[in-house]
Amino acid sequence: MKGYIFDLDGVLVDTAKYHYIAWKTIAKEFNFELTPQHNEQLKGIGREVSLHQILQWAGKTLSETDFTDTALRKNKLYLEQISSIDSSELLPGVLNFLQLLKAHHKKIALGSASRNARLVLERTGILPLFDAIVDGTMVSKAKPNPEVFLKAAEGLRLPPADCCVFEDAPAGVQAAKSAGMKVIGVGNPEVLKAADTVIPNFLNMKI
């Protein structure tokens, strides 16, 4: 493989928990208790799609204005949570693996639904290791649509077949598969059955 594309939350950094805290706070406003099981279904999808799903679970509807305001408040809650993050939020083995890829002259991209991805990469100190970044501000279709990964491959100037994606969410795995890329799941094998292979983390990871 010539190119390696990474999702952000739950793959490179441990910020997925902050999304959960923020969404849990929002859900309580609708008298809905957001469980970790619910949160699994929100992984890898955009803010608006996630809010639509929570409203559906809660049996609530919002006007367009209130919907926009609620989505923005969720983002504000998340940004407050990550305001003081640093390299300690990187998941096990991530930094060493990224450095290994660079040492072997492999191309590295980010393919994330997060609109705050660049900020997180900067705060955790790994931004300089990336050759291309595609985040939620650059795509119009959320995962499982393959747009984010196809744009990442384009940013690396590589065909999709030469790229490998690392994902922790079923929607992301499906997106990578639809893009014609190899996909390695990071996390629970039961949740990521559609991935080509699944790893628990990047410790002892080799190219």
TrEMBL record:
Binding positions (Mg(2+)): D7, D9, E167, D168
Cofactors: Mg(2+)
GO biological process: carbohydrate metabolic process
Annotated EC: 5.4.2.6
Key words, A-Z: Isomerase, Magnesium, Metal-binding
Positions annotated as active site in the UniProt record: D7 (nucleophile), D9 (proton donor/acceptor)
Manner of cofactor binding, per the entry note: Binds 2 magnesium ions per subunit.
Binding, substrate: 7-9, 23, 42-47, 50, 74, 112-116, 143
Residues with site note (Important for catalytic activity and assists the phosphoryl transfer reaction to Asp8 by balancing charge and orienting the reacting groups): S112, K143
Molecular function GO labels: beta-phosphoglucomutase activity; magnesium ion binding
UniProt similarity note: Belongs to the HAD-like hydrolase superfamily. CbbY/CbbZ/Gph/YieH family.
NCBIfam families: bPGM, HAD-SF-IA-v3, PGMB-YQAB-SF
Protein name from the UniProt record: Beta-phosphoglucomutase
Native organism: Capnocytophaga ochracea
Gene name tied to this protein: yvdM
